[in-house]
Amino acid sequence: MRYRNGMLVLLTVAAAGMVWVDAQSGAGQVTSSLRRVSPPNPPYTAEFKTTNLKTLSNGITLTQVSNTVEVRDAQGRTRIENVTTPAYSETEVHSIAVYDPATRTRTWWDARTKVAHVSSPPPGSGGQAQTCAAGAPIAHPAAPANALRDDVKRESLGSKTIFDVRATGTRTTTTVPTGARGNDAPLIITADVWTAPGFQSPLEEHRDSPEEGIRTKELTNLTLGAPDPALFSPPADYEIVHQETAVPCTPPARSATPLPQSN
């Protein structure tokens, strides 16, 4: 414990580094307090609210709200828990996905079925693309549907503080030319995104699209510190289904064809 400006504060030391927390916020309650964090990828728990609003041609609006909890531990494992209430139903759709970068394993499960799927790369591949065997089909990128290209421009929005975290904003304006999507006039899409070092997801987003409507994502709560390790494993009574991740192959390198020599 230390005193600063006559106020008792707690010096919380976590795996991520050190953070000053007012005593009034409660012991162990490390929220809204990322004034000093090191290294740049601290463990944290972030809660987001996403609202999708679409207005139909007759003026009727469709609203869909989802809540996401994003967790990362000191080992770099991430857990995304998403709860969505579709516009056409009052039943929540609940999904959880975990990724372990050390083993390149993805795990996801559903509380309704109590089945957890575990996807990992084939043994010996390390998750890296392998050289295609002779005669193996090689996937080629699909040709563009049309020759018209979007015009994309980016501009800085400066910086602002979100839950005591300094975030940098970027506005991306995309102009879809006439005829690119069957449109008889250009489509203007804007996206304002606020990011901060050490966080895998933007802390705030605002997207306005004539086709998709308005999508707003905001950070509603932030806690710094090591999460419960149990969060990264499915419940013990779930059925586990293992499967291998499809690892794409890359074509073997070709030797350069010598250019014909002129006499």
Q: Can you walk through the features of this model?
A:
The chain has a single domain, classed as outer membrane lipoprotein receptor (LolB), chain A. Helices cover 0% and strands 49% of the residues. It has strands at residues 2-4, 7-14, 17-22, 44-55, 61-72, 78-85, 93-100, 105-110, 115-120, 130-131, 151-162, 165-176, 187-195, 204-209, 213-224, 239-244, 249-250. Strands 11-12-13-14-15-4-5-6-7-8-9-16 form a 12-stranded mixed sheet, with no helix packed on it. Strands 1-2-3 form a 3-stranded antiparallel sheet, with no helix packed on it. It has a two-stranded parallel ribbon with strand order 10-17. A hairpin with a 2-residue loop joins strand 2 and strand 3. 13% of the residues are buried. Residues 1-39 and 255-260 have low confidence and may be disordered.
Sequence-ordered SSE layout with sheet pairings:
Layout: E1 2-4, E2 7-14, E3 17-22, E4 44-55, E5 61-72, E6 78-85, E7 93-100, E8 105-110, E9 115-120, E10 130-131, E11 151-162, E12 165-176, E13 187-195, E14 204-209, E15 213-224, E16 239-244, E17 249-250
Parallel strand pairs: 9-16, 10-17
Antiparallel strand pairs: 1-2, 2-3, 4-5, 4-15, 5-6, 6-7, 7-8, 8-9, 11-12, 12-13, 13-14, 14-15
Name given to the CATH architecture:
Clam
In percent, how helical is the residue content?
under 10%
Structural class: mainly beta
Q: How do the helices and strands follow one another from N- to C-terminus?
A: EEEEEEEEEEEEEEEEE
Q: Main beta sheet, described?
A: 12 strands, mixed
Count up the helices.
0
Order of strands across the biggest sheet? Answer: 11-12-13-14-15-4-5-6-7-8-9-16
Using the coordinates above, name the CATH class. Answer: Mainly Beta
